[in-house]
Amino acid sequence: MMKAITGTKDILPDEIGKWRKLEKIVINTFRNYNYKEIRTPVFEETKIFSRGIGESTDIVSKEMYTFLDRSGTSITLKPEMTATVVRALIEHSLYKKNSLNKFFYISPMFRQERPQAGRLRQFHQFGAEAIGSNNPFLDAEMIIIAFRILKQLGLKNISVKINSLGVHQSREKYKKLLREFLADHFNDLSNESKKRFDTNILRIFDSKEEQDQKIMENAPLLIEYLDDESLEHFEKVKISLLDAKIPFEIDPKLVRGLDYYTHTTFEIISSSVGSQSALCGGGRYNGLCKELDGPDLPGVGFAAGIERILLACENEKSLNIDEEKIDLYIVTINPVIYNYAFNLAINFREKNLSVEMDYLNRSLKAQMREANKLNSRYVLIIGGEEFQNNLLVLKNMSNGEQLTVSANDIDKLISLIRGN
Ligand code: AMP
Asked: Taking Cα atoms as reference points, which of 238, 262, 237, 265 lies closest to residue 252?
């Protein structure tokens, strides 16, 4: 049997209701905060990501779907959105039109990770990027938006973790200290962390290996070495979150090991989804635009994983979807009048009613069963004696009431079905 590729998933019609509801909440929340939607191609030149995300990250070093196309260009399916959005901002000079650009997106992403619950190879993210301002309100705004969306989805078991990476200079000073500390423990580090010692030392905090975690318990913490500017920025973010009544904790080990990350980093964790517990992550990236050959603009953003959020909703039974209904099912008893029924259905659909009819030459009983299965609000019966007399029978499926209407009076039928 032909199957979808491991780590990819069909989203079947039964599940679409949850996606639509989530998307509606996402779009509406971003509208309230004045973020504009951006859609970018599914694939880009590889260098956008290798430079925009960083060679030393897991994403670039082992997870990207990269291939040469027929003209020999290295192409990558997008593993995340930030680099792509920044590329679009620079390419279209959007920063010249607006000093601050606030974007949001909903998009599939691709990463060749080991599939497990909450970890896929094609997954979907919604997220935002605000580019052009270093205002700490925007760092807070990202966290508030993400938190508010998750709350509107009814999630209870979520917690917000924040940290500050400060500005580049204080981080470089701190990295020296960390290197000195870890040099004394180098032989006890895992092989992966030994590599990170040279390539991306901050990421050793992310290690899941017990031996690394034990060492890192006593490591100096970046947050204790922040300069005044960074401390002030962080303080403003915290105050804004307190004002917005967003509960949060400071996690000094929450790092993003890339040079262009500055100031705030954050994650929202769920205790309802097992080991892949991060529903969303984000932070400030003041050096990225310049890194991608654009102007030196500050930015901040976040991305949230839709499949993982829906898994959390399912486990918390928090997202209730209304049963889908159609307005009308047309039951046709006599095959001679199928044409009439088909045209009538089109007519109703043009009037913005959702209408179904029989395409399988089913019996009257089977058609009525189908109307029930589709949760049709009304059934229109065409056939028999009434039809000979130019009459149609409209049945209200919620109370069983039947009404006979002239076939010439379609407007009356429509207004009955619409309920006005
Ligand atoms: P990141 O872009 O790595 O910061 O991830 C942001 C969010 O996307 C995570 O918190 C997850 O919810 C989601 N995510 C990341 N990778 C995957 C994946 N392989 N499968 C499903 N969701 C993912």
From this structure: 265
Ligand 1 contact via 123 beta carbon (within 6 Å): yes
Helix ranges (DSSP H) in 244-363: 288-291, 306-316, 338-350
Q: Ligand 1 center to residue 418 CA distance, Å? A: 43
Pick from 210, 203, 312: nearest CA to 256: 203
Which one, of 360, 386, 361, 356, lies nearest residue 372 by Cα?
Answer: 356
**Nearest atom, ligand 1, residue 309 CA:** 12
Nearest residue (by CA) to ligand 1, atom 17, is: 119
The Å distance, Cα 280 to ligand 1 centre, comes to 7
| β-bridge partners, 37 | 104
**Token match 């959020």: residue?**
309
pLDDT in tens, the chain (420 residues): 999 999 999 999 999 999 999 999 999 999 999 999 999 999 999 999 998 888 878 888 889 999 999 999 999 999 999 999 999 999 999 999 999 999 999 999 999 999 988 899 999 999 999 999 999 999 999 999 999 999 999 999 999 999 999 998 888 889 999 999 999 999 999 998 998 898 889 889 888 899 999 999 999 999 999 999 999 999 999 999 999 999 999 999 898 756 678 999 999 999 999 888 999 999 999 989 999 999 999 999 999 999 999 999 999 999 989 889 999 999 998 878 889 999 999 999 999 999 999 999 999 999 999 999 999 999 999 987 888 899 999 999 999 999 999 999 999 999 999 986
Regarding the beta carbon of 80 and ligand 1, being less than 6 Å apart is answered yes
Closest ligand 1 atom to the C-alpha of 127? 6
Does ligand 1 lie within 6 Å of residue 120's CB atom?
yes
Cα of 410 from ligand 1 centre, angstroms: 52
Contact (Cβ atoms closer than 8 angstroms) between residue 395 and residue 357: no
Take residue 45 and report the two structure tokens written for it. 């030149």
Cα 260 to Cα 409: distance, rounded to the nearest angstrom: 68
Task: Tell me which residue has its CA closest to atom 20 in ligand 1.
Answer: 119
Closest ligand 1 atom number to CA of residue 121: 19
* Ligand 1 proximity of 125 Cβ (cutoff 6 Å): yes
